[in-house]
Amino acid sequence: MPATPRVTITTAIPTAGRTPRRSVLFFAFAFAVIADPVSSVAYAIEAALRALNGDLALLLPTMSLVIGLVVVVTANYWQLVRRFPKGGGAAAAAARAFGPHWTFLPIGALVVDFVLTIGISIAAASSAAIALLPALAAWRIPLALVLLVVVAGLTWFGHGGRLLFAVMTVAFVVFSVTVLILGFTSPHTTGHAAPSTTPGHSAVMAVVLAFPVAMALATGIEAPSTAIAQLGQLDDTQRRRFGRGTLALLVVIVGGLTLALTALAVQLHIGIPGTDSTQIADIAHAAAGPGRLYGAFQLTSSLLLLAAASSSFQAGPGLLKALSGTPEQPGVLPPVLGRVNRHHTPYWSVVVYLAAAALIVVAAAGQEQELVLFYAVAVFVSFLVGLLAMARFARREGKPALAWINGLAATAVAFTLVVNLLRGWPVLSMVATLLIAAGLYVRWNRAGRPSGIEDVEAQAEVA
After folding, report:
1. How many Å apart are CA 245 and CA 240, to the nearest integer?
2. How far apart are the C-alpha atoms of 213 and 280, rounded to whole Å?
């Protein structure tokens, strides 16, 4: 789910030299927005391998299935961008398809998703640092909390450094491609993991049960459909192109990196990592050795993960601020959550997310793999609502083929959600989502059902 970076660029695009300027704008927008899903590559492949009990022979089929579902969900947001070029995402679709009271389900999912994005990104960044500097292992939780406070503190200064997200994303992609080339052509060493460990049931069943865990890779897919609200200097047609172009880039980069790194892990026999490492770090170490390239890869992956956490520290409080309303039109949350400093940062909302993220980081002992199971629950609630809304639109407009496609996609998303819920503890993510949604609905009713609630995601982006 989108931890959506704000990339507010207000310079007008002149008629002369128009194409180069728009290309720069698209680069900055697209690579900043996809920072979150790209960063998910750092832990999603390992999550799948753990669910497979280390069976490398089934890892590539599992991740291929994951990417297939990512493509399906992305296709739905491709439709959402066409229908809502001013932003809004699943919340806007749900409200217009089923009524404004349905808006609160995807909003509740977003709130939970932002907290989990912060927590898992900080934990994964800590793991990347520990893999590079093992002496930090004894300080895992304090390290994670320090990074959490630093990232939260940086939000005090607003969005001045947001364009660095694009640079971080590109840097990670460049070093990843370099590692992949070395790994496939002249690896430094190979691992010792067995190609198959007999998961205890049929291969097909093992893959079916494992792929939902790795669907953490799908987080951030909604980001382009809401982030286009930031592009106020563009018209609807141009925003559609930016949104759809970003979605296409997301699929190509995330899908390409995921499948290539998975294939390299299989080829180099890189299995479940030790306590103080990660699978992606072991892949890079085997491919490039312990030198500068390995260090650069770990550094850029850690910075990208911190960027993903920072983006949620912007988007999450922005959503609470939008829900708190304005002096002219009160919202559904207390006005204190909308108070901003001179950099337009809603600081009390940042404190709320800081406290919630610190709680889950400590509860998970700073281990990102402990949080992955929870991650692919809340975000899939939003995906499911969005797909059902698009299926309803298609039926209303007499497009039965599109309605069936969206319906089948919704079935696949629902299956993924159910499998993750059956694992037990991830039910907590669903409970939190439902409680937040119900609480917001009750407050909305008490406030007299103020209008515009269906556009709160778009309002959060431009606030």
Report:
1. 8
2. 17
Cα 119 from Cα 456, distance rounded (Å): 24
Quote the CA–CA distance of 214 and 63 in Å, as a whole number: 8
pLDDT-derived band at 161, boundaries 50, 70, 90: low
Q: For residue range 334-361, what is the model confidence (pLDDT) as tens digits?
A: 888 888 888 778 888 999 999 999 999 9
Contact present, 295 and 132 (Cβ < 8 Å): yes
pTM to 2 decimal places: 0.88
DSSP state of 448: T
Q: Assess whether pLDDT exceeds 60 at residue 238.
A: yes
Distances, alpha carbon 165 to alpha carbons 29, 34, 43, in Å: 9, 9, 19
Cα angle for residues 73, 415, 217 (degrees, 5° grid): 45
Tokens (6 digits) for 125: 């960044």
Q: 142, 169, 126: which is closest to 307 by C-alpha?
A: 169
Count of beta carbons in the 10 Å neighbourhood of residue 399 = 14
DSSP code of 340?
A: -
**DSSP assignment string, 406-445:** HHHHHHHHHHHHHHHHTTSTTHHHHHHHHHHHHHHHHHHH
Q: What are the backbone dihedrals phi and psi of residue 340, each rounded to the nearest 5 degrees, phi first?
A: -125, 155
